[in-house]
Sequence to fold (229 residues):
Amino acid sequence: MTEILPCPIPVIAIDGPSASGKGTVAQRVATTLGYHYLDSGAIYRIAALAALKQGIDWQDEMALAEMATHLDIRFAAGEIYLNGDIITEAVRTEDISRGASEVAVHPALRAALLDLQKSFRKAPGLVADGRDMATVVFPDAGTKIFLTASAEIRAERRYKQLMEKGIHANLADILQDLQARDARDSQRSVAPLQKSENARLLETSHLSIDQAVNAILDYSRANTGKQVL
Ligand SMILES: Nc1ncnc2c1ncn2[C@@H]1O[C@H](COP(=O)(O)OP(=O)(O)O)[C@@H](O)[C@H]1O
Ligand SMILES: Nc1ccn([C@H]2C[C@H](O)[C@@H](COP(=O)(O)OP(=O)(O)O)O2)c(=O)n1
Fold:
């Protein structure tokens, strides 16, 4: 008799470097499809902030991994809560961006955060963005996208984003920080930022947000029901 296996909950995995548009595009794709959304970068940002609050060094791998096993995190109505406090803005500072990238190099911390990330996979589906969504967290995702743009364009996008929020910024500093983070995220030994072999490359330097969203929706529709292993 042929065994009928349950159909896995679909996942659209979107990886890419900083300010490539992952969060913006992933949230729009999720809203269009009525899927859940995982901002995995926020989890590394929360870990960096929680460590700072608890006086744990960003280099102390074992203390970070221990801390991660009892993080009280909640995402609700667009806000992020840590131990009941709203930290949505606090995790977006440049300091915490660097901290997230620094704590993210530690294999024990990454392992401790794995189940939490996987728990976001709920019906009817999930759109997840980060650095290792397609390679490590959801390797069976049916749609895998590697979203990118040139470093100069990404720095300009981040600059505009900060200016819109009324945050003063310097374009040259942003470009430098972004390149340092790209290098650290790509060169670490575990789950480095890299295009999964079977991911679709989407270069957005000359695409609008709508064009990027539509390209992903089209590609995902063409992939429905398939698992890219
Ligand atoms: N294709 C695009 N064209 C122009 N601006 C974009 C595009 N994609 C994203 N943006 C803008 O770039 C900024 C950074 O995007 P964000 O989603 O925060 O990137 P990431 O999550 O990769 O860091 C946002 O202000 C967003 O509106
Ligand atoms: N899946 C992930 C997501 C983020 N990280 C790390 C590496 C990144 O520099 C930081 C912050 O990620 P985040 O996606 O929030 O950063 P950007 O919005 O792209 O600038 O966390 C990771 O190692 N793995």
Remarks:
- Strands lie at 11-15, 36-39, 73-76, 79-82, 85-86, 126-130, 143-148, 200-203.
